[in-house]
Amino acid sequence: MTNAAGNKRKRTLTLANGDDVDLTVKISTCDEDIVEAMRLRIIELEDQVAEALPAAKRQKTNAGKAQPVSEAPPAASGSKTAAAPAMSKADEKKLKAQIKKLFDGLKKQCKSADCKFQGSRKSVKLDEVLEKDEFDAIFKTGDGELGTLIQPTPTNKPTSTVTIIEYSGADARDLLTNGGANLGQLKGTRWSIGGGRSFRKSEKLGACDVEIDFLEVQYSRNTMKCTLKFEVSEVGTCGAVYGASHKSRGFGGFGMNRGFFF
Description:
Blueprint lengths: L11 E3 L5 E3 L9 H21 L2 H9 L25 H23 L4 E2 L4 E8 L2 H8 L8 E4 L10 E7 H10 L8 E5 L12 E17 L4 E10 L10 H5 L13
Parallel strand pairs: 3-7
Antiparallel strand pairs: 1-2, 4-9, 5-6, 6-8, 7-8, 8-9
């Protein structure tokens, strides 16, 4: 057989006894040796095709395959996430870049006009597309002390393709700082609360420091979509702020409208 470049390419099938069968001509007889050699060749070609697939497509293809019987069962409900193996310097650099991207998204949302800090928690939602190995590297790192696996577990949707992990405020902050995030850069804008007897409008009072109180992570293995739901609040807040009184009185006092702050 001659390819487009004009070079001859001999296609043969090597049998177990070392003989070669010419595949460019019709095989008149087919014995057990030829069948076995063809079976092994098919398996070899399938492996080569799988390795040549793009990473995202390979992930989706593997997601539809049945899990081997020897695979370890999901961790028990309420247990800590499993520890990940040691990473190379290249993988660690990639991990920090991904965490930085998530943290930058959180900072942007906290500074947005829709996120007004008025003495109570605010919800911030981020969506990101991650491959399964990327998700595991970010949210299942360390010695298993960060995060609580909610789903799947043996008692809660054990066959689900959606993973849910919850983090306390301390665990969420450690998760980000371990990835190189500087939590001191997390800022927001403090606003007064309108209303009261004089029906004052909400007023912009200035910048404030923000901290993370809670984090829920949801990941779909089928779509590779990762949703992060943060609960954040102004550092040191203990109640709401009404009207312009916060400017002169601060928290925990009586304002110009005789409103009481907690």
